[in-house]
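Is this the right way to post structure tokens for a design question? Let me know if I should format differently. Anyway, here goes:
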């Protein structure tokens, strides 16, 4: 079905379904929900919602079919982005970049498509379908933003890099809070030994520096990952202030 012909709806599609089906049921019309909808080779007359109500009343239809298009906004975003990711690109980072850039749009789409992104009511009349339907405007806006995001590879990669840096910062902040409460870390004397302790206990969780930058925790030790050294120095300084 060509959804371009459906009315755009700014609220939750389910609200439209509830309102229209309740009105039809109150008029004694039976609602039958379809599990599938194939109209490719059928003649269709598409009406606005009010026009459909008038048609149902004028032709004394005893039954109306309801079809709703299932929707999971998060899955839709993930699957679309995964389709365009190149080898070596992390789809999760691309998704994070998109959802950060379009946070309000994603929120709107999830609110408008709590379970369905479009719905239609139809009847079979004189060999053809007569129907009315709505498509969530927020969902259409989301698809347009996804399309633009996926078409610009360089911007995608830059946004994914920013998303990774933000994620790394959040992880380092979480680790810093854990280390502040770790008595074994506090009991160790010397930042070099503390680096070794963090590397052994938390090493897999400490994000590597995005440029592979190394630092010395003191003049005599071997260089270590800059994020690891920075984490230990930050927490060590905070602990010193508390003493």
């Amino acid at each position: 079905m060509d959804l371009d012909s459906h009315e755009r709806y700014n609220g939750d599609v389910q609200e439209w379904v509830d309102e229209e089906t309740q009105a039809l049921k109150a008029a004694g019309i039976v609602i039958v929900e379809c599990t599938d909808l194939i109209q490719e080779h059928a003649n269709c007359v598409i009406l606005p919602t009010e026009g459909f109500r008038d048609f149902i009343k004028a032709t004394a239809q005893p039954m109306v079919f309801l079809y709703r298009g299932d929707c999971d906004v998060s899955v839709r975003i993930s699957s679309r982005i995964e389709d365009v990711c190149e080898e070596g690109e992390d789809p999760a980072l691309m998704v994070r970049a998109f959802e950060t850039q379009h946070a309000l749009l994603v929120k709107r789409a999830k609110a408008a498509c709590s379970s369905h992104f479009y719905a239609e009511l139809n009847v079979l009349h004189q060999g053809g379908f007569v129907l009315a339907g709505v498509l969530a405007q927020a969902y259409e806006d989301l698809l347009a933003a996804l399309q633009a995001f996926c078409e610009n590879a360089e911007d995608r990669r830059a946004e994914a890099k920013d998303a990774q840096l933000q994620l790394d910062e959040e992880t380092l902040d979480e680790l810093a809070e854990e280390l502040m409460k770790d008595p074994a870390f506090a009991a160790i004397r010397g930042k070099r030994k503390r680096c070794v302790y963090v590397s052994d206990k938390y090493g897999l969780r400490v994000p590597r520096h995005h440029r592979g930058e190394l630092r010395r925790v003191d003049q005599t030790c071997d260089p270590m990952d800059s994020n690891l050294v920075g984490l230990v120095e930050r927490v060590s300084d905070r602990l010193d202030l508390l003493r």
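Format looks fine. Someone answered above. Worth noting: The first strand starts at residue 7 and ends at 9. The chain has a mean pLDDT of 86.
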